[in-house]
Amino acid sequence: MSGISLPAPVAAVVDAINDADTDAFVAAFTPDGFVDDWGRVLNGPEGVRSWAESDAIGMGARMTVLSADTQGDTTTLRFGWQSQKFNGESDAIVVVEDGLVQSFTIPPHR
Fold this sequence. Notes:
Layout: H1 8-18, H2 22-27, E1 29-37, E2 40-43, H3 44-55, E3 62-71, E4 74-82, E5 87-97, E6 100-106
Parallel strand pairs: 1-6
Antiparallel strand pairs: 1-2, 3-4, 4-5, 5-6
């Protein structure tokens, strides 16, 4: 992530994944925040925790931010991902509200 500037809440999500810290990942989200992974939406702290355990931290994920563009409260990321579930590059759209992540969306590949 060298040289790529991320808003603090977005960096907190990336750091939590790479530090294998599920509690920090969940804490980075608003109470009504959600993860949308290819249309599978997981809402609130329980949903966010579930995704972290089934698709990210629980699968030994490492996330490398390749590029980032922030416009207002929305950051669009291109990232590399290595885990026991998925390996490759993907995109994410992260929306921040009141200093926390409101949504973390991984759209389907085109």
